[in-house]
Design brief:
This protein is of the alpha+beta class. It folds into two domains: 342 residues, no CATH class; 107 residues, Immunoglobulin-like. Helices cover 41% and strands 19% of the residues. Strands 6, 7, 8, 10 and 13 form a five-stranded antiparallel β-sheet that branches. Strands 11-12-9-14-15 form a five-stranded antiparallel β-sheet, with no helix packed on it. The protein has a three-stranded antiparallel β-sheet with strand order 1-2-3, with no helix packed on it. The protein is elongated.
């Protein structure tokens, strides 16, 4: 029973170089560059709107992405984005396995960066392991302290960059130098700094194994044609040590050097088959290819391949990679459908939106003149970056008079609503109507080429 409660063994990934390690470096530089620099990109939206290209403005309840501006009432766009992200991840996984986890996941990217810093100060795998297991000396204290200081600096920059997406980036950066940061912003940065430091510096592979649900259900998206990292057992077994000049007769090409295990950031042995912990980073392929090159054997003992392709090669047949199959077709159709709906909604997005609520108490008032008066609350969303005056009209009720109450800015030009804001007005509608059921009416709002309408009712006396 004791093995179930054994302490988690620390993993010391060994440095390796090859095409997949280079690809991971490119992915890290590009993704971190976008993450750290994107808040400083400017986008001119006019004098009344922020000029930060990517911004989530919590104070004014707006989300900006270059030319797209999302209001709280348009949260369905966020739903569409989440659906596209989920289905896109399923689609990529069904084709290429867990390449997202191996190259683009934020946990992988920052863990790679932290391991690189650790390697700079403490050395490669064996040196780091020896340093940690050895007694405390001034050298050990210096190396570990320097490592953690750089980790904290990276964590602080990561947390600060995240907060920049919710504030004007240049202004917030300037406030740091002026020591004028609000306690709220500072508390968020401190919390995110600690979480980044903890997850990338200490938890690492445990986040992928125990916290991320993706590893648990990934097998549901795999089939025999999914590209995965596999060990060519037919070629590699039986494995054993090899000396230069020895014959390969009756033995496999795997020389049991264990480099594929030493370079793995998850600490697994890919020769035992595909495992839940594998994030498909390809570093074991680089390590094995390097060994094969040294002992003058063909590369590819460990490689990206599909199960059906491997089985076909064992049987001496030829099996092509099948990218188009039922599950990928389903995902493609869903992506096209959701993407098409979102594109249509964006292209037909109105810059004017009006809602009208009928007063509940009283439902109507009979004036001394005999006319019936109904009250309404009108809310006008001006989604443009220009101040607008709107003209409100009513259809479906003859000789009706609209009176605007003092719940907004009213002038001779109509109902005034500032740029990129919501205007609220209370209005009264008077009309000489006989007793009867509620009348259906339509309010129309116009300003130049902008127009919107809203259906409501006008309530009068019931017939006796």
């Amino acid at each position: 029973m004791l093995q179930y409660f054994a302490k988690q063994e620390r993993i010391y990934p060994k440095r390796v170089w090859g095409k997949f390690r280079k690809l991971k470096w490119v992915a890290m530089i590009v993704t971190l560059g976008i993450y750290y620099l994107a808040p400083f990109i400017r986008w001119d939206r006019g004098p009344t709107a922020p000029d930060q290209a990517i911004l989530i403005d919590l104070e004014h309840a707006r989300a900006y992405w270059f030319w797209i501006e999302i209001w709280p009432q348009e949260v369905y766009y966020l739903t569409g984005i989440l659906i596209l992200a989920a289905i896109g991840l399923f689609f990529i996984t069904s084709l290429l396995g867990r390449v997202w986890c191996g190259y683009l996941c934020f946990q992988t990217v920052w863990s790679d960066l932290f391991v690189w810093v650790e390697r700079i100060f403490q050395g490669d795998r064996n040196a780091r392991k020896k340093l940690r297991e050895g007694p405390w000396t001034w050298e050990k204290l210096y190396k570990i302290t320097a490592t953690h200081i750089v980790w904290l600096i990276i964590s602080w920059c990561t947390a600060g960059s995240f907060v920049l997406y919710f504030n004007d980036a240049p202004t917030l950066v300037r406030s740091f130098f002026e020591l004028d940061v609000s306690p709220t912003v500072l508390s968020f940065i401190c919390g995110l700094t600690f979480s980044t430091y903890l997850m990338a510096g200490f938890a690492r592979e445990q986040i992928c194994i125990y916290m991320c649900p993706y590893a648990r259900f990934q097998s549901a998206m795999f089939d025999k044609d999914t590209l995965i990292i596999g060990y060519d057992e037919d070629r590699g077994e039986p494995r054993g040590k090899h000396k230069k000049g020895d014959s390969w007769e009756g033995r496999g090409h795997c020389i049991n050097c264990s480099l594929c295990v030493q370079v793995c950031p998850m600490g697994i042995d890919i020769r035992d088959g595909l495992q839940m912990e594998c994030i498909a980073c390809g570093l074991c392929i680089d390590a094995c290819d390097g060994v094969m090159e040294k002992i003058e054997l063909p590369k590819g003992l460990i490689r990206y391949d599909t199960e059906s392709h491997m089985q076909a090669k064992v049987k001496g047949g030829k099996e092509k990679f099948r990218f188009m199959r039922p599950r990928t077709i389903y995902y493609t159709c869903i992506l096209a459908l959701v993407g098409g709906i979102m594109l249509f909604a964006l292209l037909n997005r109105s810059s004017l939106d009006m809602t009208i609520l009928h007063d509940r108490n009283p439902l109507f008032v009979q004036l001394s003149s005999g006319e019936i008066r109904n009250g309404y609350v009108v809310k006008i969303q001006n989604k443009t970056h220009e101040h607008k005056n709107y003209e409100l009209n009513l259809e479906g009720l003859e000789n009706a008079v609209i009176e605007v109450q003092a719940a907004g800015d009213v002038d001779a030009g109509g109902l005034y609503v500032p740029a990129d804001s919501v205007g609220t007005y209370h209005i009264h509608v008077k009309a000489d109507v006989p007793a009867g059921p509620p009348r259906d009416v339509v309010f129309t709002l116009e300003s130049g080429t902008l127009q919107d309408s809203y259906e409501s009712v006008f309530i009068t006396r019931k017939e006796k």
